[in-house]
Amino acid sequence: MPDSRTLPRTQPVLHDSRTTLTEFRPGDENAMVEASQDESIRRWTAWPRSYTLTDAQQGIAQRKERFRSDSAVAFAIRRTGSDLLVGGCDLRTTQDSPHRFELAYWLAGHARGAGVASSAVRLVCQWAFRELPALRIEALVQPENTSSRAVLLRASFTHEGTLRAFRIRRGLPIDLDCYALLKNE
Ligand SMILES: CC(C)(COP(=O)(O)OP(=O)(O)OC[C@H]1O[C@@H](n2cnc3c(N)ncnc32)[C@H](O)[C@@H]1OP(=O)(O)O)[C@@H](O)C(=O)NCCC(=O)NCCS
Predict the structure, then answer these.
(1) Per-residue pLDDT at 146
(2) Does the pLDDT at position 116 exceed 70?
């Protein structure tokens, strides 16, 4: 029977001299709970305000289930040479096209300011354009989230426009800037 999956059956390890991307592993939960206390994560992501060890365990199980069902691959971000989880970078498939993917990422406060997220985004995009049918990778960012925008611009994404009142977050409509990177860029 032909394989109808968009994502591979096993998740690769991606790395450069700064950043290594692996699966999430049992033992990553404490670092996720600690990261959830960070002000930027609270402000710019939909993580629950009171994020517990159980939320982290469920989060890891949910990431594995999404990979099994071909809807997303979730990379744990680690500094190369260390096992400690310092962030996450998700690549989601889309319903409408096997060629369009969505990217999302976060980094623990202590790991910022060293180019780790930018490396992670570059590694995931290079892999997706090389190994998956990806032609377009998108990221949606709140206009005021300047650190996130800088990550995308460093990785050569283009700002394509603003989706007004595109999502409801914590009960309020938010605008999202759409950034995209194409395979041949
Ligand atoms: C968005 C987020 C991941 C960006 O983190 P970050 O540390 O600023 O990004 P990077 O890891 O790529 O590091 C870039 C910084 O390191 C510096 N840097 C140092 N060495 C570098 C290198 N070799 N390459 C690139 N940048 C380097 C850059 O100058 C930049 O610093 P600056 O912000 O003072 O200009 C982080 O702010 C975050 O997790 N925010 C909360 C969640 C979030 O907003 N997620 C995105 C939702 S759309």
Answers:
(1) 98
(2) yes
Between the CA of 35 and the centroid of ligand 1 the distance, in Å, is 15
Residue 140 Cα: closest atom of ligand 1: 48
Q: How far is the CA of 113 from the centre of ligand 1 (A)?
A: 5
Q: Separation of 89 CA from ligand 1 center, angstroms? A: 13
The C-alpha atoms of residue 155 and residue 129 are separated, in whole angstroms, by 14
> What architecture (CATH level 2) is domain 14-139?
3-Layer(aba) Sandwich (3.40)
- Summarised one tens digit per residue, pLDDT across range 19-77 is 999 999 989 999 999 999 999 999 999 888 899 999 999 999 999 999 999 999 999 99
pTM exceeds cut of 0.85 = yes
Domain ranges of the chain: 14-139
Q: How many residues does the chain have?
A: 185
